[in-house]
C-alpha cells in the first residue's frame, strides 16, 4: 500500500492561501491520493504512519505542471538562433523553409527510441525542478507515420520516467512544402489530418487533446475550425496557438470551441478576452518564446487579469523559439517580463496549469487530490522565482518519491 506522512514542513498552497506560508504543516497520503493536509496539531490518528518523513521546515508546494511543451523532437536550430541575432526575423526564416520545417526534417529522420532518448534529459530536467505533469505536443511529423512516432515517444517517456505525460496532437503546425502553394493539395492534406490521421491516432489511444497553430504563416481560422470540428466529433478537447504574431481572432476561435486553453496571445484583443472569460478558456503565456524572439508587444496581462481570465505559464520547450527546459525560469520571465506577481507565477504553474490540461485532480495540496508535491530547499515561495540557478526539488508523484531513472540501453 502506498501511504506516507510528511511532517514539519512550511507549506504554500497558492490557489488557497496566496503567498501565506503555513508553519508546522503535515501532509498524509494513501494509494497515491492526499488524505490530509493541514496543521500537524490537527493530524488525525488514522493518518499517522510508523516512519514519517521529517521535512526539516523546508517549503512544500504542489508539484509543478508544464502545460505547453514540444519536448519530443530531434536535432536543434542553433543556426536559426544565430540568424535571428543577425536580424533575420522568425517569419523570414519560416518562409525560407526553416523554422518548424527544419525540425520536421530532423524529427522525421529519427525513430521512436531515438526520439525518446533525445527527450529523456529534458523531461528529467523538468522533474528535478519539481514538475510532475508535462504536456507534450506532436507537430514535427506532418505525416501520419511521423506524428504517430512522436506521440508514441511521448507515451513511452511518461511510462519510463514515472512522470505524467499528456499528449497533444498538433498536426496543423506547419504545411509540407509540397502542398503549401497548391490550394487543392493543401485542402486535401488538411482533410487527411482531420478525417484520417486524427481518428486513427485517437483510436490507438495516443491523443489527449488537439492543437493547431492559427497564424498567417501557418493555418487560417477556417482551416483550424475543420480540425476542431473533427476533434469535437471524437470527444477530444482542443487547445490553440493563438494570436502570437498577429491578430486572427485566435482567442475568440478557441473560446468558440470551449478550448482548454489559448496560448501565446501577444495580439489577443478585447473581444477575445471576453470570449475566453465566458468559455472558461485558460490563457497560457509563454514568456520564453517572447524573450527568445525579442518580441516587443506584450500579451494583454492587465486586461486578462481585470477580466478574471485565469493565466497559466509554461516553458514552451522547443528547438526553435524556446530552447529552454526550465519551468522555474519561465516563472521568473513571467514576473520580470510580463509583470506577474510571485503568487500569480505559482498559481500559473500549479492550479491554472492543471486547468489548462483539463485536470481537476492536481495542482493543489488538498485531500482527495493526487499526491503530487514538491519539497524545496528554500524557506519562502518567492525564492522559487528569485533564484535563477539550480534549486532541486524532492518530488513525489502519486505519493512515490521520484528518482531520476537511467535511460534504458
Observed structural traits:
409 residues, alpha/beta, 8-stranded mixed sheet, 8-stranded parallel sheet, 17 helices, 16 strands, 39% helix, globular
Mean pLDDT metric: 95
Strand runs, count:
16
- In DSSP terms (H or I, runs of 4 or more residues), the helix count works out at 17
Shape: globular
Q: Largest beta sheet, briefly?
A: 8 strands, mixed
- Helix- and strand-based class? alpha/beta
Unreliable segments of 5+ consecutive residues: none
Helix content: 25-40%
Provide the β-strand percentage band. 15-25%
List strands and helices in order, with pairings:
Blueprint: E1 3-11, H1 14-17, E2 22-30, E3 33-39, E4 53-54, E5 59-62, E6 64-66, H2 78-85, H3 90-95, H4 100-108, H5 112-128, E7 131-137, H6 144-161, E8 164-172, H7 177-180, H8 183-203, E9 209-214, H9 221-234, E10 239-242, H10 250-256, E11 261-264, H11 270-279, E12 282-285, H12 287-292, H13 301-307, E13 311-313, H14 327-338, H15 342-348, H16 351-356, E14 373-376, H17 382-386, E15 394-397, E16 400-401
Parallel strand pairs: 1-4, 1-5, 6-7, 7-8, 8-9, 9-10, 10-11, 11-12, 12-13
Antiparallel strand pairs: 1-2, 2-3, 5-14, 14-15, 15-16
Model description:
The model has no long low-confidence stretch (mean pLDDT 95). Strand 15 and strand 16 form a beta hairpin. 39% of the residues lie in helices and 20% in strands. Helix 14 (327-338) packs across helix 15. Strands 1, 2, 3, 4, 5, 14, 15 and 16 form an 8-stranded mixed sheet that branches. It is α/β, with parallel strands linked by helices and 409 residues long. It has 17 helices and 16 strands.
Amino acid at each position: 500500500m502506498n501511504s506516507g506522512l510528511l511532517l514539519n514542513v512550511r507549506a504554500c498552497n497558492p490557489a488557497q492561501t496566496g503567498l501565506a506560508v503555513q508553519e508546522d504543516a503535515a501532509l498524509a497520503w494513501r494509494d497515491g491520493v492526499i488524505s490530509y493536509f493541514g496543521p500537524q496539531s490537527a493530524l488525525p490518528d488514522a493518518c499517522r504512519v510508523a516512519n514519517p518523513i521529517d521535512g526539516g521546515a523546508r517549503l512544500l508546494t504542489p508539484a509543478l505542471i508544464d502545460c505547453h511543451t514540444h519536448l519530443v523532437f530531434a536535432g536543434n536550430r542553433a543556426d536559426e538562433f544565430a540568424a535571428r541575432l543577425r536580424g533575420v526575423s522568425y517569419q523570414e526564416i519560416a518562409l525560407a523553409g526553416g523554422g518548424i520545417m527544419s525540425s520536421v526534417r530532423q524529427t522525421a529522420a529519427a525513430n521512436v527510441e531515438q526520439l525518446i532518448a533525445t527527450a529523456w534529459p529534458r523531461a528529467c530536467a523538468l522533474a528535478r525542478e519539481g514538475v510532475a505533469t508535462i504536456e507534450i505536443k506532436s507537430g514535427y511529423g506532418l505525416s501520419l507515420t511521423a506524428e504517430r512516432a512522436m506521440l508514441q515517444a511521448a507515451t513511452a517517456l511518461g511510462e519510463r520516467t514515472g512522470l505524467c505525460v499528456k499528449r497533444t496532437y498538433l498536426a496543423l503546425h506547419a504545411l509540407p512544402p509540397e502542398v503549401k502553394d497548391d490550394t487543392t493539395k493543401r485542402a486535401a492534406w488538411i482533410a487527411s489530418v482531420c478525417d484520417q490521421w486524427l481518428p486513427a491516432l485517437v483510436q490507438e489511444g495516443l491523443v489527449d487533446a488537439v492543437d493547431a497553430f492559427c497564424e498567417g504563416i501557418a493555418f487560417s481560422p477556417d482551416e483550424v475550425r475543420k480540425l476542431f470540428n473533427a476533434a469535437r466529433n471524437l470527444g477530444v478537447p482542443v487547445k490553440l496557438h493563438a494570436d502570437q504574431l498577429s491578430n486572427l481572432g485566435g482567442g475568440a476561435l478557441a473560446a468558440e470551441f470551449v478550448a482548454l486553453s489559448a496560448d501565446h496571445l501577444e495580439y489577443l484583443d478585447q473581444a477575445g478576452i471576453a470570449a475566453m472569460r465566458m468559455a472558461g478558456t485558460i490563457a497560457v503565456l509563454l514568456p520564453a518564446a517572447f524573450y527568445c524572439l525579442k518580441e516587443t508587444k506584450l500579451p494583454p496581462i492587465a486586461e486578462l487579469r481585470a477580466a478574471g481570465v485565469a493565466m497559466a505559464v509554461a516553458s514552451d520547450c522547443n528547438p526553435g523559439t524556446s530552447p529552454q527546459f526550465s519551468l522555474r525560469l519561465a516563472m521568473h520571465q513571467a514576473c520580470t517580463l510580463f509583470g506577474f506577481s510571485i503568487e500569480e507565477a505559482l498559481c500559473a504553474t500549479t492550479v491554472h496549469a492543471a486547468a489548462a490540461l483539463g485536470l481537476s485532480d492536481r495542482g493543489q495540496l488538498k485531500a482527495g487530490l493526487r499526491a503530487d508535491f514538491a519539497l524545496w530547499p528554500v524557506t519562502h515561495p518567492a525564492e522559487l522565482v528569485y533564484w535563477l540557478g539550480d534549486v532541486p526539488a524532492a518530488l513525489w508523484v502519486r505519493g512515490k518519491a521520484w528518482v531520476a531513472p537511467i535511460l534504458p540501453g
